[in-house]
Amino acid sequence: MFQDHFKVSYRNLRRQKGYTLINLLGLSLGIASAILLFLVVSYEKSFDGFHPNSARIYKIGEMENGGEPDYLTKTPLTPKLKTDLPEVVAATRFAGWDSPWLEAEHGRIQETIKFVDEDFADMFGFAVLEGDLKQTLATKGEMVITEKKARELFGDDRAVGKQVKEVLGDKTWIVGAVLQDIPTHSTIQFSILSGWSNIPGYLADPELANWYNTFMTAYVMLDEYATPQQLADKLDQIVADNFLPAGNATSIHLLPLKSSRAVEANNDMVINLLGIVAIIILAIASVNYVNLASAQALVRIKEVTIRKVLGSSKRQLVSQFLAEAFIVNFLATLAAWLMLFFAIPYMEEIFSIAFTYTSGGWAVMVGATLFFSMLLGMASGLFPALLITSIKATDGLKGKSSNKGTNPVFRKWLLTFQFAASILMIVGTVVIWKQITFMKNQNLNFDDSQVLVVPLSEQDFPDIEKAMQRVKVMQEALATEPGVEVVTRAQNVPGRYWQNYNRFSDKADPTIVHSLRQSYVGANYFPALGVSFVEGRNFDATRAGDTAAVIINRKAMQAFGWQNIEDKTLCEGGENGCKLYKVIGVTEDFHYQSLAGEVQPLIHFLDNVYGSLIVVRFQPGKTSSVLARVEKEWNGLESLSSFDYFFLDQEFAGMYREQERIGISAAFFSILAIVIASLGLFSVASFLIRRKRKEIGIRKVMGASLSELAVSLIKGYLLLVLVAFTIATPASYYLMSEFLQGFAYHIALDPTIFVIAGGLVLLFAMISVGLIVLRATKENPVLALRDE
Fold first, then answer.
1. For residue 24, is it left (φ>0), alpha (ψ between -120 and 50) or beta?
2. How far apart are CA 639 and CA 110, in angstroms?
3. Taking residues 324-333, what's their average pLDDT?
């Protein structure tokens, strides 16, 4: 029987080539698109899930005055939590930003060493290839390296037990363990680890490692029955007893490890939207297929009735329809996976990710796709089969469908759903691109054009004092280069501001305390960036007193409640007493980070010596000559690193690459959804209008004009689009409002966005139906009437 069904199905599908092709194309595109988007969503949702204890691990953050938390904390807090709270079974700090040059028998590398507590080994599930991770972290002078770094340093030889020497200095490390390379879907990234007993001097400096300074990443693991809510009162008490200055309005916030990626990338809403898009596209393709199958089945009323008269049972007829549906679905699934084979590399490149599914994971996905295909085949085959086989034989032989089950209301609702989904996707695409354009074109309150930045690391020079003198000479030489306007040094530039906070109090009222994001800059930093001053003056390197002066932004001035900075002094406290800084200037609130985040209170200190960046502002048209001169001067520094640089405008624009990727994807899949919906509408309209050939022919003979016929045939679809617009507008408004809440600075939702989306869907619908109507109304009525 199956062989007979297959033969008949093949003949029917071959006879309806257009119908078969549209079904295969629409369904395969829908399945492939949904799987691609599902891969992206599942990748983002998979972050840190490979740790066995991931559900019990939390990242420590601090909130001030009930605001948004920053997921950094103070050096002494982590051991304090472990000691004082029995619910905390393990805790570790994760810090270090020095990148020394290291060499071993096979090679030389420059790499950042991260320092952690011993509990790191118990908390996280990074795979150990050689050695003992916990023992290494507890041992003085030992380090843990990843598999990739082991190959770079030792080739194919065993690394454990061998020495790694710092090129600059006399420090020698012993490799105690080798880890498998850190997965890309881990928020904790490193290449070299060492225990906290090996921390460099700057991490142990009392001016940094105190209850004031907030710069440390840290994690805690709770026992299996504890929750952050249960610890709230105890955490508040630790703040009250230890955080300085006393009485500040800070609270500790524990972020679940598995939520870290969404918070850090600020992409939770975007990823959820991509998941919704995947469901919408799959739904459009599925609805399209079911709608088309049910419409096409009406053309086969006579065929089914004759087969019933000749003795075919209802079960046999239903089996035939199901066989055809399963064949189409199976072929569409195969085509979808073939598309994926070519599309996945492009998707990985667009999103800068690598899908890391195991063979078992891929098998589950293929199985899930086939299962969905079977369900869709069942729905798309069973509905039209039961519909047609229930028609009376007397009506069926005349090609009529008087049965109530053939009422077109269901089909109209399916079309309405497609229109509404298409409108929603167009609105989403337009909103995303308008938001990206808004952020890229917003006034940043600084000028990022014509600014060259050269990174500078102390670890690149054997004699740092001598090197800094050479850098000073280099700056003076660059200042004389034609086309160079300003040369300065800085610890940070917009787009690369460190998350380093400290607490400052108002000397006049010590009860007013705020956490300020801090940075060290050269005297010409603000002129180099074109940052304007609201009040006061810039740093002056010739004034000895400016080393004890600070410049804040408008946000910081507002935080302290000042109307001006006359006679204003800030106190930076510590265990060793209060250090006073005179406020000499207030800058405009320039955007040092993406507009997705709000401008925070900033404080800048003067430091002309150890800034880690050389900043050069130059005149337009002088890029090549200035770059050549900077490189020439750099080569004279005898650095271990090769010359490297970036342009500030390009660096800042790079912060919006993820949003641009999302925008490109949304646009592509929106167009794809509209194409799939239009193909389905074209086919359904073709079948339904073909059933009205005689009616059209009679009306033409009776004197109806082409325009009257066209309006009568099209107005039903126009009404469906209007209904879809009414449904999609509030839904898309809600979703896009939620999406925009993820940005501190965002556009307002303009009603024209929804009108444009509805208009585009109406245009596509009218084109799809209009082509069929045009052909039907121009047909010679004799050809339609002679079939009677």
1. alpha
2. 13
3. 82
Burial class (CB in 10 A: 0-12, 13-18, 19+), 145: buried
- Angle formed at CA 76 by CA 75 and CA 82, multiple of 5 degrees: 120
Q: Are 603 and 583 spatial neighbours (Cβ–Cβ below 8 Å)? A: no
Q: What pLDDT, in 10s, does the model give residues 616-647?
A: 999 999 999 999 999 999 988 888 888 999 99
Question: Tokens 């305390």 belong to which residue?
Answer: 513
Q: What secondary structure, in 3-state letters, does 659-711 show?
A: HHHHHHHHHHHHHHHHHHHHHHHHHHHHHHHHCCHHHHHHHHHCCCCHHHHHH
Q: Which residue has the tokens 């900075």?
A: 565
Record the tokens describing residue 765, joined without a space.
């619908």
Residues 143 and 114 sit within 8 Å (Cβ to Cβ): no
279: helix, coil or strand? Answer: helix
Buried b (16+ CB within 10 A) or exposed e, 197-221: ebbeeebeeeebbbbbbbbbbbbbb
With pLDDT > 70 as the criterion, what percentage of the chain qualifies? 86
375-400 burial: b if 16+ Cβ within 10 Å, else e: ebbebbbbbbbebbbebeeeebeeee
Please give the single-letter amino acid code of residue 639.
S
CA distances from 263 to 55, 665, 750, 756 (A): 16, 21, 28, 33
Structure tokens at 341: 């084979």
Mutual angle of helices 359-389 and 301-309, in 10-degree steps: 70
Question: What is the pLDDT averaged over residues 226-232?
Answer: 93
SS3 content of the chain, % helix, strand, coil (to 5): 55, 15, 30
Which of 282-296, 414-428, 476-490 is predicted least confidently?
Answer: 282-296
Q: Which of 131-140, 396-405, 643-652, 754-763 has the lowest mean pLDDT?
A: 396-405
pLDDT: which is higher, 192 or 327: 192
SS3 at position 256: strand
What's the pLDDT tens digit per position in 351-370? Answer: 777 776 554 566 777 777 77
Residue 196: C-alpha distances to residues 117, 142, 254, 644 (Å): 5, 11, 22, 32
DSSP letter (8 states) at residue 65: T
Q: Does position 207 have pLDDT exceeding 90, yes or no?
A: no
CA angle 493, 496, 497 (to 5 degrees): 80
Q: Report which secondary-structure segment, H or E, holds 102.
A: strand 101-103
